[in-house]
Design brief:
By secondary structure, this protein is an alpha+beta fold. Helices cover about 40% and strands about 15% of the residues. It has 14 helices and 14 strands. One of its GO terms (molecular function) is endonuclease activity.
Length: about 375
């Protein structure tokens, strides 16, 4: 059968190219009885008759083909806009969202409030499978306090990134600090010992510098001994290379210059003083005394700051990631309650602003427990420098 090149539409009476007609197997020529434009009008009329019978209304019919190239119609705001104003949606044949960006955001927010109650509840269920009420109940069970630092309000849901299991509600800083340490108990343990000068790093400094105190004079002496006859020239080359970069300004903050930092990197063999995995690229110092403690990788340096440079918080974090810190205990009335301090205290009985004495008691307990683990080696004990 010869292919039809053109056909007359029964509705509009116009003769149009075959491409203007849909396929129809029941027709002798294999084309529909009506052109695409008239077919759309017929379908639209049928759909609107059904809506009217249900007591509902519908927008006026509008052919999509009427949209100019490079433009798209948004049925929400009833405007034709450039396609750049529409988001991406791989699930649709056009690759774009139905609505323009402002309308899409508004419709999404309305849907989340209608189905989940709020944006927060939607995100909680999406990420953790918890409702807003369940999270509020967890916060109340903790006495409203972060279970790690016992300082700031509990606001962030924390979960195990390996299993996806929700653990507790933490403050922003503690939640971020755990992430910087990759929830690794060993790194947290080394970080706590690093702050208390119990780690291998102190021995390294004593062997190389003769002291655990990092100063420009100690590093200069090490430089002159390590590079005899070339120390001053080497230092000048380093300072010239660094110029007025951030490393070159370290003397103003910590009493070290770029050459001193370069020497400390050499002593540490360019590895982090805590994890020994990352590069020694950040100068870590005590924010109260400005004394330099060592060079750390980005994760350990940031994690220590977020966990407040507090050995007690770091040791609590070790128990926390091991699942030993937060536990349920009998509440005396047949139920259970949470316990996460030593000595134990019922979180519900602690008034707002009343956690400080419990935090200090817990810190003292953990320090004594760490001291009981063993007698310090002779190369660690130094009351003057510690």
């Amino acid at each position: 059968m010869a292919m039809v090149q053109a056909k007359k539409c029964r509705d509009c009476g116009e003769t149009k190219p075959a491409a203007e007609f849909w396929k129809r197997k029941a027709s002798a020529d294999g084309l529909s009885l009506y052109c695409r434009a008239c077919f759309g009008i017929r379908n639209s009329a049928s759909y609107r008759d059904k809506r009217a019978a249900e007591g509902k209304s519908a927008r006026p019919y509008r052919r999509l083909r009427d949209t100019p190239d490079g433009m798209k119609y948004c049925p929400q705001c009833d405007e034709t806009k450039p396609i750049a104003e529409f988001g991406k949606n791989r699930a649709r044949s056009t690759g774009l969202t139905n609505y323009c960006r402002p309308c899409h955001s508004r419709v999404s927010d309305e849907a989340k409030r209608r189905l989940y109650g709020s944006q927060r509840s939607y995100l909680l269920q999406l990420r953790y499978g918890l409702t807003e009420a369940q999270v509020d109940e967890m916060i109340a069970g903790q006495g409203g306090i972060c279970v790690l630092c016992l300082r700031d309000p509990a606001v962030h849901v924390d979960h195990d990134h390996s299993t996806g299991a929700v653990r507790s509600i933490l403050c922003f800083r503690c939640n971020g600090g755990l992430g910087q340490f990759d929830d690794n108990p060993r790194r947290l343990y080394e970080a706590a010992d690093y702050l208390e000068k119990r780690t291998w790093y102190v021995r390294l400094l004593r062997l190389e510098l003769g002291t655990a105190q990092i100063t420009s004079s100690a590093l200069r002496a090490w430089r002159e001994e390590t590079y005899p006859g070339f120390a001053n020239r080497r230092r000048a080359e380093i300072l010239l290379r660094e110029g007025l970069t951030s490393r070159g300004q370290l003397r103003l903050r910590c009493g070290l210059d770029a050459a001193d930092v370069d020497d400390l990197q050499a002593i540490q063999q360019d590895v982090c003083a805590i994890c020994v995995d990352g590069p020694a690229e950040h100068v870590d110092h005590c924010h109260e005394t400005l004394a330099v403690r060592g060079l750390l990788c980005g994760g350990c340096n940031t994690g220590m700051g977020q966990l407040r440079d507090d050995p007690a918080v770091l040791r609590r974090a070790i128990d926390y990631v091991l699942g030993l810190l937060v536990r349920e205990v009998p509440d005396g009335s047949g139920g259970t309650r949470l316990s996460f301090t030593e000595p134990d205290v019922d979180p519900a009985t602690v008034p707002q602003g009343g956690w400080e004495r419990h935090r200090l008691a817990d810190a003292a307990f953990r320090k004594e427990e760490r001291d009981r683990e063993g007698v310090r080696d002779s190369w660690i004990a130094d009351p003057v420098e510690v």
